[in-house]
Design goal:
Oligomer: homodimer
Order of helices and strands of chain A: EHEHEHHEEEEHEEEEHE
Largest interface: A-B, 83 and 82 residues
Number of strands of chain A: 12
Shape of chain A: globular
Number of domains of chain A: 2
CATH architecture of the largest domain in chain A: 2-Layer Sandwich
Structural class of chain A: alpha+beta
CATH superfamily of the largest domain in chain A: CofE-like
Radius of gyration of chain A: 19 Å
Chain lengths: ~250, ~250
């Protein structure tokens, strides 16, 4: 009798408060050791954006920010901090919608999300907000390179953040940086068991991997890194840009 | 040294071709036995929509469908089957967008998705398309009730389907029916380790659970049911309606 195919999602141990300049790969190895977890070939590492941004110093001290008129008006209308709104505007390449106190904008990476992913949660210091890593693929690649060198095998890395979606309530984890695996699986051109040609089946695997990892991370537990073990990923350089919808095909520009 | 917290995603065995009137709970128990998997308290069952729709007979024989003028024109413009487009229009409460050959519409359940989730893939018979279950929460509840009675403990059930998203390329699994667990976790009002009041953190757990399950199901492997083991869900009656964004708050109506 064959055993049930299985994927495991494992949380590394708790992290110290991450501050700019810290050696994130070293902290990751220590957090694995803390829970007696030996990273192994085939593992995929999922790292929360927040600790990457903190280690890279992708933080803004709001005391250094002078709000523009638009930021000031929006903040007044919706009871927000005008300095934080100004940072949102600065991080935005394009405003997609403004309403209900939320700014949906496109970041310079091409992500469309609420408030340009500028976030005051889980940041030490009441006047600090975190930004997304400047080049989140490069951030993932740096972690991958350092850990792969230390471990002696290639360890793919996905950086995750929690984004809202239109139409559905609640946020889910998605990939914001990818290194070492193909972020999508394209079934187009293959046929199903009935011979039907699949024509719409491109799966956003990297997003599903980060959503799976979120289940073990939680929001309040201080476990910002997880391992997905047993998923047969496709090795590739990979880039989160593969997960961004071609504007020409996007009905919701 | 504490062990790494862990969640397991397990695939049940392969299913026979499901046809209307089949006893899906019995098939699920058999598919668990096939891979020596003993369902246990704390497990969450994720069931692909397609087999639920097939068992319920939520199928349309396109030979019985007369396309409307709109369906005919759209099908001609984009090289589609006008009868299938007619079914999409019938399954739609509201058209959200039409473009690039895709109809984004709101189903009577309140889901916004491509082509009202009408699907010709993985259906036996070239003139058959599948619909979403009429009342997908009730479908989940029926499976939950039958399996819970057979097993002697409560087994929450989520019915999943693959939906596209604006802005991001690729489809991901989401919940379309829920029974036996709270589909969201609301962190609002709680504070992070730095004392910051979380104000936007409502996690769509049921969607993340289905995305995790998709990783083990695949599209071509004939494994339409998975178990998530070790996730500390909140028992509740639950409804997928909790995952539908209040139209008043949706900037993308």
């Amino acid at each position: 009798m064959p055993a049930a195919p299985e994927i495991r999602i494992l949380a590394l141990g708790r992290f110290p408060e991450v501050t700019p300049g810290m050696d994130l790969p070293a902290l990751i190895l220590a957090a694995a050791t803390d829970v007696d977890l030996t990273l192994a070939p085939g593992d995929i590492l999922i790292v929360t954006q927040k600790i990457v941004s903190k280690a890279e110093g992708a933080l803004v001290d709001l005391r250094t920010v002078t709000p523009s008129d638009l930021a000031q008006r929006w903040a007044t209308a919706w009871g927000k901090d005008p300095r934080q709104i100004e940072v949102v505007l600065r991080e935005s390449k394009r405003i997609v919608r403004m309403g209900n106190g939320v700014i949906i904008s496109e970041t310079h990476h091409g992500f469309v999300c609420a408030n340009a992913a500028v976030d005051a949660s889980n940041v030490a210091g009441h006047d600090l907000v975190s930004l997304l890593p400047r080049d989140s693929d490069a951030s993932a690649q740096q972690i991958r390179a350092a850990l792969s060198a230390a471990l002696g095998f290639d360890l793919p890395v996905i950086i995750s953040d929690s984004f809202g979606r239109p139409w559905r309530f609640g946020i889910v984890n998605v990939a914001v940086g990818v290194a070492g695996l193909a972020p999508i699986i394209d079934y187009r051109g293959q046929t199903d068991p009935h011979g039907y040609l699949l024509n719409a089946s491109v799966l956003a695997i990297a997003d599903e991997l980060t959503s799976a990892a979120e289940l073990i991370m939680g929001k309040l537990d201080g476990r910002p890194v997880a391992v997905v073990r047993g998923y047969p990923y496709t090795p590739a350089e990979g880039s989160v840009s593969e997960l961004i919808l071609d504007p020409a095909r996007d009905l919701f520009r």
